[in-house]
Amino acid sequence: MKYVSEFRDPVAAKSLLAAIARITDALGASAEKPVHIMEICGGHTHAIFRYGLDKLTPPGIEFIHGPGCPVCVLPRARVDEAIQLAERPEVIFTTFGDAMRVLGTGKSLMQARAAGADVRMVYSPLDALELAWRNPAREVIFFGLGFETTTPSTAITVQTAAAEGRTNFSLFCNHITVPEPIKALLDDPHMVLDGFVGPGHVSMVIGTHPYDFVARDYAKPIVVAGFEPLDLLQSVLMVLTQIHEGRAEVENQYARVVPEHGNSVSLAAIADVFERRPSFEWRGLGEIDLSGLRIRAKYRAFDAEEKFGIGYGAGPRAVAEPEGCACGQVMTGRMKPLQCPQFGRGCTPDMPLGALMVSSEGACAAYWQYGGARLSAAAP
Ligand code: SF4
User: Fold this and answer.
1) Relative to the CA of 322, which ligand 1 atom is closest?
2) How far is CA 25 from the centre of its chain?
3) In a designed cystine with 321, which of 46, 134, 245, 325 is the match (CB 3.0 to 4.6 A)?
């Protein structure tokens, strides 16, 4: 297939849905005893709701929306630290737009900006580096966050800053990795997961082998998937087929984009600039070993945590979620967004209480955008 329209072909979708229905029946799955498939990536969560795949697939399949939205899993302590940095008078704090509205303990970066902090939205870390060049008397900090998809561009920006000898640019690093939280979820005795739809964009960078442990050590199928409706339906069918045949393998449905061994240029840039933190806190999931990245010693001059004395080296960190917020339960599949008492009441996209309502990749924002507002209004 060459064109996007082909990946949305209704005839092919009907045929895949019929195959999914047959195999779901053969597995004896039902609404009461469903097969639990976690889509890890927030982009997949968004696509599932956008195309109504949760409604089109049989009730014997339950999608569990995983922790693959980097803004959603950013803990409140890190948002507070970002605001602390942004409020320094010498600082221009730069960030991607969706991080602006995430609430810390008391406020968001957007609210800090309204109160006078110099917070600017950028589209790339290189935009932040250019700001540093244009403002030599100011300290420019880039709020680096995201999974392996965005880490290479941040790494290359730090390399560029070093090559230019830039002294007024630094990175507040919150980059995180995907395989470690999958392991943490699989180790959680309360989680019921039968298989995974694996992330497409992250895998474009890291390849498929970092998921080998899912099949080898936990005997669960995982299928790396694209983002069009037929990609997702085919991936769900591949997961179900593995379960039906008693197999547990890593399969690559998105081979047109994802190379088996990843992108060597990106991986080399990441390895040059970053190393693993011993652990990193995830909103709703707690501390997960080796799941966060920090800047290597040779690039220490560009580490905002070192430069301004905040972050993991600076004392206790755990900050509780806002009262009534059920983001942790939603992110681990223990609750659906509509079951959160705050959904549509204390928490809407205009006034988000929890992080899952902020980013378009958050499960609650996806529910809201594709029918949740109506469902919420109909709820007693
Ligand atoms: S509705 Fe709001 S508070 Fe409730 S889980 Fe979703 S984002 Fe969190």
Assistant:
1) 3
2) 32
3) 325
Residues of the chain with pLDDT under 50: 380
Q: What is the pLDDT of residues 48-84, one digit of tens each?
A: 999 999 999 999 999 999 888 888 888 889 999 999 9
Residue 346 CA to ligand 1 centre (angstroms): 9
For residue 183, give every residue at least 6 positions away whose Cβ sits within 8 Å of its Cβ, in sequence order, or none.
Answer: 213
What value, to the nearest 5°, has the Cα angle with vertex 12 and ends 8 and 14?
Answer: 100
**285, 340, 348, 360: residue to mutate for ligand 1 pocket, most atoms within 8 A of CB:** 340
The whole model's pTM is what?
0.92
Pocket test for ligand 1, best of 343, 345, 367, 369 (most atoms within 8 A of CB): 343
Nearest to 141, CA basis, from 271, 308, 354: 308
**Tokens 């499960």 belong to residue:** 363
- DSSP bridge pairs for 343: 347
Strand pairing partners for 119? 93
